[in-house]
Amino acid sequence: xINLRKLYPxxxxxxxxxxxxxxxxxxxxxxxxxxxxxxxxxxxxxxxQEMDVVKKKNFGVDSGSANVGDQIFQLQTKxxxxxxxxxxxxxxxxxxxxxxxxxxxRVSTVSSQAQSLQKNAAAQSQQKTEEVxxxxxxxxxxxxxxxxxxxxxxxxxxxxDQFNSYIKNNPDSTKVPDSVFWIADSYYRQGNxxxxxxxxxxxxxxxxxxxxxxxxYLKQGLSLRKLDKKDEAKLFFETLVDKYPDSEExxxxxxxxxxxxxxx
Length: 264
What we know:
Blueprint: H1 8-21, H2 27-57, H3 66-134, H4 143-152, H5 156-169, H6 176-190, H7 193-206, H8 213-226, H9 230-243, H10 248-263
Helix pairs in contact: 1-2, 1-3, 2-3, 4-5, 5-6, 6-7, 7-8, 8-9, 8-10, 9-10
C-alpha cells in the first residue's frame, strides 16, 4: 500500500507557492487532496480490520464457502478501489510537484531579470549623475558681453559702464576699439549727440585705421545736423568724402551735403 504520509512536506509547500504565483492548483485543491487522503487511509484501516475479523470468525471453515468467499471478495474489491484512488492521488501530487518546480524556475528567471533591470537602471542613473556633475559650465559673461547685451536692450548707461569697465580691466584686448565705438553709439542712440560726437572722435583719434572710422565721421555729421549745426555738419561730411571717397558712408555724406545745400 502506498504511504501518503511521506508526501506531507509537499502538502505544506505547494499551497503557498501556487497561490502566490497564480498556478492551476489552489490551496483548496491541495487541502481537498489532503482530506481525501486521510479518509482513504482511515477507510483502508477499517477494511483491513474487517477482513481480519472475517478470517478469524471463519477460521477452520471451508474457504470455498460462498458466504465467506463473497465477503472476502467484496472487501478485497473495496481495498483494490482504494488503492487505485490512492494511486490517482499520488499521480496528481506528482503533477503538482512538477508545477511547483516550473514555478520556481519562472520565479528565479523573473527575479534575475528584475535584478538585471535594477542594476542597469542604477548604472544609467549613476552615469547621468556623473555627466551632469562633469558637464562644462557656461562661462560667465564678461563686461563686454554684458555691455553689448544691455546696449541691444536699450540700457545705454549700464552698457557704457560695462564697456568702460572692460576697457579698464583689459586695455590690450582686441575688443577695446569695439567698446569705444559702442560707447559712442550708445550716446547716439540715446539722442545725446554732443557726447556722441566726442566719443566718435575718440575712436578716430585712437584707432585711425579702424574700419568704422568712416562711419564715425558720418555719425558726427548726422549728430551736428540734429543739433542744427549745419556748417559744422558740412565740414565732417566733406572730410569723410575726401578721406574715404569709395566708401558707402561717403555716398551718404554726399546725399546729406546736397540736402543741406538745398535748405539754404
